[in-house]
Every structure is written in C-alpha cells, then in structure tokens.
Input
Amino acid sequence: MTEYIIKNGNVFDPVQGIKGDKADVAIKDGKIVDKVGSGAKVIDAKGKTVMAGAVEIHAHIAGPKVNMGRIYRPEDKLFTCTPTKGMERMGGGASIPTTFKTGYEYAKMGYTTAMEAAMPPLFSRHVHEEIRDTPIIDEGAFPVFGNNWFVMEYLKNKEVENTAAYIAWLIRVTKGFAVKVVNPGGTEAWAWGLNCLSVNDPVPYFDITPAEIITGLIEANEYLGLPHSLHIHPNNLGNPGCYETTLDTLKLAEGYKAKNKFGREQVMHLTHSQFHSYGGTNWGDFESKAKEVTDYVNSHKNITIDTGNVTLDETTTMTADGPFEHHLTGLNNLKWANIDVELETGSGVVPYIYSPSISVCAIQWAIGMEIPLMMKDPMRCYITTDHPNAGPFTRYPRVIKWLMSAKAREAQVNAFKHKDKVLSQTSIGTLDREISLYELAQMTRAGPAKSLGLTSMCGGLKPGMDADVAVYNFNPDKPVANPDDIEKAFSRCAHVFKSGIEVVSNGEIVSNGHKRTLWVNAKVKDNPQVMRDINEKFLKYYSMTQANYEALGHHFVPNPYTLEVDAT
Amino acid sequence: MTKIIPDVICPFCGTLCDDLEVVVSDDGKQLLEVYNACVIGTEKFLHSQSKDRVTRPRMHQPDGTWKEVSYDDAVEYTAQMLAKAKKPLMYGWSSTNCEAQSVGNEIAEITRACCDNTAAVCHGTTLIAVQDIGLPSCTLGEIKNRADRIIFWGCNPAHAHPRHMSRYSIFPRGFFTGKGQMSRKMIVVDPRVTDTAKMADVHLQVEQGKDYELLNALRVAFRGEWLPDVVAGIPKEKIREAADMMKSGRFGIIFFGMGVTQSLGKNHNIDEAIAVTKDLNEYTKFSIMPMRGHYNVTGSGEVFAWQFGFPYAVDLTRGFARYNPGDTSTIDLLIRGEVDAMFTIGSDPGAHFPISAVKQFAHIPSVCIDPHLTPTSGVSKLHVPVAFNGVETGGNCYRMDNVPIDCRKVVEPPEGMLTDEQFLIKVRDRVRQLKGAA
Output
C-alpha cells in the first residue's frame, strides 16, 4: 500500500490532546504510524485543518424504511441526480440519496464511519445489501430490541441473563452492532393502533412497562459488555411537553455503570435529543426545555447524547416509532407509509417540510442549537441530524457553521418569520458560545468513537489507529471573514483517507476504498432455554423458518470486521 | 440413497414459501421430489429436470431455425448489442436474484439503458398510487398473528398464490389468532365467483370496472353518511355490512391484485384503496398489501430504488436516472418504437405485452435470458438458457411484504450452464471493454 505523509497541517486530535498544532500525520499499511520512509507520498496540508475521519453515530441510511422513502418519493430526486463520473456510480436523491451517493457524500465531507440507526432484524439482509452498495465508509447497523417479544417476555420475569443470550444470538445472526431501542413498548402497542406515551404505560398484553424494558436492556447490555451502550429513542417523541418523559427515561440509567473492555463510559445513549426536549402543552405554547435536559445530562456522566439538528429543509422522516409517524401524517397530511414487523418492531415514513416560516420548526432549529451549546462536555454530545428526520446528513457543514459562528446563528434567527417567538420560547438569543475546532473534533470524531466503543480504531490520529484522515481547506490561523466559508470548507475535503487509501482528493472521489461492515460477535454460555424459545417462536409465529433467518454469505457482508465480546 | 434438503425457498410467486423439502439424489445432481409446495411450485422444481431442456444458447437463423452457439458467442452478441444501441431496453428481472439484478444495473448504467421490471404490467400502478398517498402495510407474520379481518380485492390467491391463505392469511393459528380461520372474517371483492370468493364470509360481486366507486362508497359508509341504493352493483345494505365488519376488527388487511391495478381506474383505484386503509386506522388497525406476482419482482423494485432511486421504469439514457411512467415505461417505449435493442431476463413479455409491443422485438436485436422456452425466447434473436434461480443457484429475493429471503441451491445445473449472475458478469466485463468504461 502507498505510504503517505500529511505535512504541516493544523492537527486537531482529542485522542492525543492536539489542539491545532502544526504536525505531520504518517500513514502506512492502513494505519497511522509514527514515521514513514522517504518514499512516502507527501500531502501538503499547510494552512489546512487535519482531523481524523468523522464518525456518524446515528443515521438512517440503509434498509427497508429508507428504501420505502426512496420508492415512494420520486420528487426527492428532482434536480438532485448525478451522472456516472469516473469511478463514481450515478446517484440521486436529497433527503434519501441512493446508496452510492450516500457513501460518496459522507466521504467528501470527511466521514469515514457511519452507523445505520435502526435495523429491523427480520430485514437484516436488506440492510446489509444496501450497506454493501454504500461505498467507502465503514458501517454498522443497530438491530432494534425495544418492542421485541422475546425481550418483553424475558424482562417481564426479570430474566436478564436470558435477555442477554437472546441479544447475543440476534446480533450474531443479523450481523448487528448494538442494542437499539425505539419507543419501547409503544411500537408493539401500535400493532393494535395504540401507543405508550410515558415510561409507565403498560404494553398491551405483554404487561410490562417501557421503564422495565429500558432498565432490563441496560442490564443485559452491560452483562454482555457490548462496545456500545443501550441506544435509545425514548417514548413520547416530538410532542409538546415530552421532555418530562425524556427525563424519566434518563433517570432509569441512574446507578448503572459501564462494564466493557472498549473504553466506553456511558450506559445509555440518548439519540436525537432535540426531538425529546420540548416543553409546553400544545403547538401554541411550544417551548424549549433544552436546559432541563442538558442540565441533567451534564451532571450524569453515564449518559451520552446526540443532537438531531433541524436543518430547515424539506426532508423525509422515518423511524421505528410507528405510532409517531401516524401522528405526524395527521399533522401535515402528507403521505404515510407504515411497516409493522412481526414479533420485532414496526416503522413509518412521512415526508416533512421544516419551514423557517413556521414557528414550531424555527423553535426546533433553536433547540437543536441550544443542546450542543449548553453541553459542557463535548465528548458526550455528538452532532447528528438524525438523518433524514431533522434534515439530510449533507447539511452537516451548515450545522457546523451555525455552531462555530454566533454571527451565523444570529443571521438565521433574524431570518425567521416568527423571530420574536423563537427568542421568547428558547434561550438561543442568550447563547454566544462558539464551538472550537477542537470541540468539533470531539463532537464528530473522538466522542462518537468512544461512545461506540471504537476508540482504539477510529476517531483519532494516534499511531496504531486506522488511517482515517480528513484534510479540510480551512485555515484555523486566519479569522473567518464570512461564516459561509466554514460551510464551504466542511462540505468538500481537500483529502480524505479511509484505512490508508486516498478516497477523496480535491473534493472528488478517487477510490471506492475497501468498505467494511462492522459487527459484534458476543459469546455467551450455552443457553438451551433461549435456543428452545427461539425455535418455538419460529415454528409457531414467524412467517419464515429459523434456518432462513440468518444473514449469511458474501453477498450480504462481503468484508466483515468483527468485534469480539466474551461474556461466558 | 437420497437426501432431503429442508427449508427450501420456492422461486415461483411472491408468497416465497420457505418451508419446502426437496429430495435429491445422493450426488446432488438430480431433483426427485418436492414436499410442502403447491402444484405450481412443485412443477417449477421438477421442470428443471426435464430431459428436453435447452442447455446452450441458441441464435435464431433467417430461415426460422435455431443454431446452438457457445456462451462466449452469446456474451459477445449481447455485449455488442447493448454497447452499440442508442437506447437499449433491459426488461424483466422479476424471476432472478438481487445479485443478478445488481450486475444488470451496472450494465444498464454503462450502456445508458432503460430498465424496467414486470411491475410494468402488474403493480406499477400500485407504485404510482403509493407515490401519491403512501402505504400503511406490515409483514405477513403480522397477519398470521393478529389479523381478524382479511379482504381480498381483485385477486384470487386460491389459484395465483396457492399457499397464501394457509401460511399467512386465513387458516394459520397465530399468537393472537389461536382459533385460526374461526377468528377471522373474510371479504372478497371480485366480479367473478372465484374459488377464493366461494370461501368468503362476504362476497361483494362488484360490477366490472367499478372498484373505485365501491371503495369510495366504503369510505362514505365508515362515516355513516348517505349512500345511493346501489353502488357498483352492490346494494347499500351490503356495503354497510362490509364496512361495519371492517371497522369492528382488531387488525385488518386488504390484499389486492391485478383485478384492481390493471382494470379501469388503475392507480386511482389503489389510491382509493389506500385511503380506505388510512380511514380505517382512525377506528382500528388496518394495513394493505399488493399481492406481488413473480417471486422477486419486489426485490427488483428494491434494488432499482436503492441504486437509482426509482422502483421501475427507470431511464438512464441521459446518464442519470429519470422516471416518468408512460414515457419511460417499457410498453410505451416499445409501442413508440424508441428502443433499438431489447434485453429480456427473468420474465416473459412475449406472453403478456400487447401484440403491438411484442412486434417490435422482430425489428430490433433482441436477447432473452430464460431457462424456459417462452413466447419471448421464441421471438428473440438470441436465447440464452441459464440455471434455474432458486433451484440450481441461490441468491436473495424479496417476498411480497418486502421481507428478504435468501434462496437455496438444491441441485447442480446441467454441466456447463451459467447462472444469470455469471452470464451478466461476463457481459458487463465485455461491455466495459467496448465502452472503455472505468
């Protein structure tokens, strides 16, 4: 493999504590190394910003509901199609780009690892086929557990060990990465047209509460010692006043400590926290409760969060929170797709337009800004747009601009039709913090990598780590003349390396890389009871036989990277 | 000695049964018996064993006879045809696996082809309706475990999806449906008294072509508003009875087929059927699902969608993907004489397209990839027989509810035969050379 040396860049690396010093980054055999030979290819990064490849902790980029979005929204492709170009396959789509475009767009922005946030286990093959067709970036997928019949039955009887054995089995057969929970109990209730709006609403028939599901899954997750913690989308998403449910959910993590060998410290990751930080009683007195939520998270070190920034675009919402999407189609009257999945989960898809002329959308935007600006530890708060729910991931450069420039935020607030309402219902007007490049590297690289348990692999530039490097045309020594320059610089990298291969040069794709699928192989003690239960459920209730359930073979996971966990 | 291979997937219809057992000879070369499959599925497996099967590509000669050629010659002809054409059409894809579809899409991208699948003559109208109004749906196991109201609209699963009712919709005893058939009410909407209709609790014998009116009347009936005495040939009392039956269920589903998608009204019928489903979700839980025909037509739509962004009727001639059914759809392209090469795989347009479209095959270079002898292979210039997908090779396929199931290989194909994917890879590599693509 070609050796590289990236010379004289301004390096930002929280893993080594480098805060913009001029330094060289050497790459050999796919890894960051101390030094390379004189024959190494020199990349001149003078006056440029050098960071590790960014890590996406939560996005919906592959699988049945994403593709449902593509199928039923031809309008999303209007004026967004890109032709075949060199080694780039053709692409299309704005909020739900095709798989090839997804890989290229992430890479061009300097992202080299991404997590698909909700994999319905029954559809794992579909998820993996799309992951296979998403070039360059390493990907993992989170199977959903919060409405799973096995989990609810075991946890009703407080059988944590059995739950853990089932999780280990399911993650293995679906080639999954982490334990995802979406509206625990609520999606199962949705199979009967109902919902669970608080952590104490019992799930119909199963007679268990969301709170019991959540604590049980935290215990099972730590019993196994998985790389990532429980990754939760709590109940009552998106409703005025939902922050109380969010706080109730966060409180469930109290007293739990992370147990794993991956350097992860949290036991719960609260995703797209913007959607869960709403106060008020209706859309008229809708207000921000970002302070209440971030105050709690700031004082509890066993929780990490991501933001879920609203980008003020037309987009496509999609979530395993089936009842929420039904609620949303009732609000905006746009087309509604729903996919209930036997024994496991459900999901829905509804297009949405975040209009700057609508006060609620503008307040949502402000809450998305408040959360990262109010979080004291950038290592525990990561930038996402919950792609494509609050906006497409391709808007990250704009979110970065808003976070790095109070001037840019002010301009946006002034552009809102209901500016006064935004200022009265949120505290965005009082926040003048500007995120530094070092903090940005924490929020998009070192932080999410640590939360995912990938800290020895990616998110930093320490020798021995994977050579995932992004070089931006951004000179940190010069004052920013125009905030739009930030957005421009973070939109297209000067260079991107993925596992030591140069994949982007001058903003163009130059290699399709060697994309890997990350998955976790958790070993547990033989558990005949769980295996018997699995067998029985397939015989009686699944519409597929057990022998046909596993995602096996080259055409699903051509290039796996396995994280081994031993819980025997 | 023989051996039994369990959990085999049936590559026939969109029901994609995966509980078949197949008996093969000890050397794995002969398929002897098939258990658990319906008659059509069994026939599909056994047909692969027929002695008169064509095992090598054949060129149509000017005198009407066929001349056997090598696979290499077939690859060359196909690649040359696609590379030279200004606007090639690559149609079918519904009876092959997703891996072959993916390779086909690469070829289409290099040659700037129009790509389409059999939704063109089936559920393409459904897709248009879904793009208008959405689709509240679920997996088939949800029906098995929960559904107590089953509506078959314009479809006849007793004959077209023979195991659908026993595996998923009417007879199975699921988790919340312990009494099986006894716990379900069945409504059939069909102008004919089909074998499915004969089983129904309520048969609404709709006047032909009046599905939209009946669907609309149901929406009126849900709201308890005024109805004329007779709508679409059905007395209003019967409509109200059906509407009450639908509303009173705990979990219902509408399955629909060609009877509504390809009769008068087309996509508008489906629009209204989906609106009925949405309305019912105000009272109870309801879903709707198209009864997809070919075993992997759903998969073709999925692969098109994640690679190009559209589920069918994709036109790549401008170098990027466009979608405009009526303009970029196969039958229209053929009838207007716009395409100058016809590539067919895994389907039989010769038997199902209007004759004016089929006649075009005669005027242009054409290739048919199909293990069977079909009307399409008969009118194509080159017929390339391949291994039976799902019998002689595996690969991923999508059931009518979009659930992916990996097909199994149970026997070896006749010696020297290529699979769809292997043949397409050779064509792709040759097309790349011819086009000088990256």
In short: The two ends of chain B are 51 Å apart (CA to CA). Chain B has a mean pLDDT of 96.
